[in-house]
Amino acid sequence: MADPNPMSRRWRRRNLALRNASKWIDAVIVNSQKERRIYSPQFGLPEERFHLVPFHTNNLNPHYEAPGFAGLAAGRAERDYETFFEAIRGLDYPFIVVSDNATAAPYELPTNVKHYREIPRAQYYKLLRQASFVIVPLLDVQRSAGQVVILDAYAIGRPVVATRTVGTVDYVTEGETGLLCDPQSIDSLRTQILHMIENEDARQRMGQQALARVIRDHTFKVYVRKKLKVIRSVASGAKPAFT
């Protein structure tokens, strides 16, 4: 929702439309805590009207599956595959990339990467099961991204390496469910990937904790329950507790 150029005509028109619409808005549900601060001035609404309802996994039956031997990076929204490719170039470890036709196309693929484009969801899940851990390299933009792939990984017991951004800090607990790296830093991403590769015990422990977290906090039932709680509280005139 946040435009990369806040001085652009498009951004000003969008902000005006949001502020006009905000007269009839009682609550806004967001998927990350930082979005409350980002969107509050755009809507012209106090932060108290923005309520965090964490996103959910699309896996209806989260359960542990034995890992394969590869690192997998997937997704298209706000992805930073340029940094990812340079971080893994020359590593003696196989990697899989799943994206659309355009996202990773401009970059020269390292020899240790297999790239799949525009594949069916069933094939994506099959490749996900072949991974030992999942990488979510992201651009540092003022909107959340990456949660779907993170939670898909958690739902089969895979830890993640993700860029520290708006959309990841609420979902990845450092050293417990995964590792975070600095935005657009080849060295930082490479260091965290190597840590995953070289520390099997830690990788398995984080994967188990990731699965436990998704079962506790990120199933579709939990998501619906939390969203309904906000809706009912707003409808009754009460102030829903920030979660």
What does this structure look like?
The chain is of the alpha/beta class and 243 residues long. The protein has 2 domains: 9-55 and 219-236, no CATH class; 71-217, Rossmann fold, CATH 3.40.50.2000. Helix content is 40%, strand content 13%. The chain is built from 8 helices and 8 strands, in the order αβαββαββαβαββααα. It has helices at residues 9-21, 34-43, 81-88, 121-129, 147-154, 186-198, 200-217, 220-236, and strands spanning 28-30, 50-52, 71-74, 95-99, 113-117, 133-136, 160-163, 178-181. The protein has a 6-stranded parallel β-sheet, sandwiched between helices. A two-stranded parallel ribbon has the order 1-2. It starts with 8 loop residues before the first helix and ends in a 7-residue tail after the last helix. The relative contact order is 0.16. The mean pLDDT is 88.
Name the descriptors.
243 residues, alpha/beta, Rossmann fold, 2 domains, six-stranded parallel β-sheet, two-stranded parallel ribbon, 8 helices, 8 strands, 13% strand, globular
Entry summary:
This protein has 243 residues and is α/β, with parallel strands linked by helices. The chain is built from 8 helices and 8 strands; from the N terminus they run αβαββαββαβαββααα.
